[in-house]
Structure formats: structure tokens, C-alpha cells
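Thread title: Can someone regenerate the structure for this chain?

I was given the following input by a collaborator and told the matching C-alpha cells would be attached. They weren't. Posting the sequence so someone can regenerate them.
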Amino acid sequence: MNNPTTLSAKKTVAKGKLLSTPGFSVVFVPSIKKAGMDWETATQEQNVFLQKNYLCAIEENPPEGMKFGYLLFYKNQQPVGASALQVLHFKADRSLNLDEKMQTGTCECFFRGFGNMLKSLVASQVEFNTLVCGNLLVTGEHGYYFQPGQVTSKQQVTLLKEGLDFAQEALAKTGIKTEVVFVKEFFKDNSDYFRKNLEKSKFSEFCVQPNMIFNIQKDWKTFDDYLNALSSKYRVRAKRAFNKSADIQRLNLDEYLIGANSDRKFELYAFVAENAGFNLVQLHPDYLPGLKKHLGEDFQITGYFLNKNLIGFYTTIKNGEDLEAHFLGYDAALNGAHQIYLNMLFDLIKDGIETGAKRLNLARTALEIKSSIGAEPHDMFCYIRHSNSFANRFIKPLVDYLNPQDEWMPRNPFKEE
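Best answer:
Regenerated them for you:
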């Protein structure tokens, strides 16, 4: 008997919508489990964050308040593209983590404290349901995929824009009204084309904190090769960090250890999340165990133990030639004495080299310390539109105002050639 959730292309297209580009149509699917084989055909397993096993993990263990949707694009009834969508109620003052000291006016800089107080007041008035093309849990271009040779660059923008309009209509029929469409996020090379086309449809562009990417050199076969490439100053710094973590035991956590340390792991993650400048989502406690269940060896959790107590952890996801640094957590009270976070960054580099990755994606936040180990910033661009034309006139300056900006100094830890 055929799987009832597996739809043929012909039947699926019949439930969708014809698009303005001749020969193309789109279908909205409310769950990845109902996307059928057409999803695999469309995405061609190019990106782990668009593969069914990852999408099942997040759908089964969703962040608080998050809902999902998926678009399948067809060309002459053959699946040629797909987009993963998320729906989240955004409330600015819940996502902005302004320092309490600044809100009370005791900040040493009056103007900075006043600015944060004003930002807090503005943020308390900003909330809306948002349809997100992309993934709020990761940094990078993970919102859609179109098969090369089947869909041109110009067609991609048009299809995606019309598909998102259709998704809003489909969600509205189920009682989920989304006022804002948020398309995240693009590297500069791809953003130029999207800017020209999406701005015609009243989308506004804004830049978020850069994605910190560490490029692994071809001649680095071991972690020592990386250390030898550092200047003496940074090599001494690295060895000092290693000495401070000498008493820490590192363990690759299997499913049993992940479960046994679940509560402590979530507690460590929560501290880091609560102290970030901007935090859109609250992880489900079972999200990381769910990733291990669905991704297997492509997902790793490394635990840091001191006297048999978990004091930190970091996670990685293998994504083709990239190694993605995912969520982490650590005991802030012990971070200074053992330099936990800095050691995690070095261990991530070691993991990248040993797994044969070409790049290590370190995402945003903690920009300067990531720069100090050799990661480079890459600007990321997003696009946003409010369905109300009057409100849409103010969305760009509002986003720019609320978007946190860290002041940091780029570093170069490598020897000069």
C-alpha cells in the first residue's frame, strides 16, 4: 500500500497554485511529514537544514510558539525547488535582552542608558506574527533551494516571492494570520540580486551581525598545523588556555549521556541564551536529543566535565563540506578560571580539521573572540515586509533601531606572510 502522506507530483500540483512564470506552480504543505518524495527530489540533499531528517527533528521539538510550513515548486509538474518556512509571534521586548543596569539608569554612560531605556519602551509596543523564509535557529542561506539548470536566478526570486504570498493565504485559511514576511538571510553576492527584485515588492533590506566563518587551510592536516600558523602572541595565548582547561575532561556524548545530562545541559544553554543581545527563540528541551536521534553521527555533542560535573557543552552539525557550530552552553562562574569558551572555539577548529571540513561556521555573537582565533566576518542581509502598507513604511527604520550592534575590533592571529 502506498504511504498516504506521499503525494505524486501530479496530485500535489492539483492542490497548489499556478504562478506567473509559465509552467511553474507551487504547493503549500503544513508538515514535512506530508511533503512526500517530492521534497527529496526537489532539494537533492544539498543542505542538511533542508533535509527531512533535520526538519523532522525541529518539527517534533519546536521552539516555544513556533509553527511550520513548506513550499514545493514544480516545473511542468516536476519538483524543482523547495522552501522551509517558520511562523513565530515576534514580541520585541521579549527578544531584546537589554542589560538590567542600563534599564534602571545606573549605567556609567547616561546617554547609553537612556538609549536602552528608550529602546525598551519602543520594543514593548512591537509585536506581530511573522512568516519566516529560513531558519531562526541557524545562520546562513538555509531558506530555500532551486535546482540549477531548471530555474534561473531571476525566476527564483519571482517564484519565492509569489510562493510566500501563497503561504500567507494558506496559513490564513487555517486561522494563522501573518502580518510580516521575513526572508533570511543572504551573503552579499546573493543579496544584490534579491535587493533589486524584492524591493519592487516593498520589501526592505537590513543587515544583521556578520556570520563568523573560519576557513580551514588545505595544508592543515592536524590541529598542530593550525597552531604553527599562529603568530607567537596568539600561540602563547592558546597554550595558556589549554593549561587552564587541563583538569577538564572532554567527552563525545552518546544518546545515553545526552539523556542523562539533559536538564543540566539545558540550564547551561539557557544562561548563554538569556545573556545574548538578541534571542528570537527559546529551544525545546528535547531539541538536541532529537537532533541526535534524526542526524546520528552527523550531529555531535561534546561535553566538558570537571570533577564529573557537566560545566559546558558545544554541538556541531556536518553540512556537506561545512561544519556548523550549533548551540552551546557553559558555566559562567567557571569560564574565567578555565577559559571554557575559548577552549571550545579551539576544539571546534580541531573537529573541523579532523573531519575534513573546508569551513567552520561559527555564526554570530562573540565576534571579537571568534576573530581572535582566525574567523572572518561575512555580512548577512535580510528582507522584511509588513502586509499593512502604512506600517510597512516604518518597518525598516524600526528594525534598524532595534537591531543590536556590537562594537568590536577585528583581529588577525596568523603570522604575516
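The longest strand covers residues 78-91.
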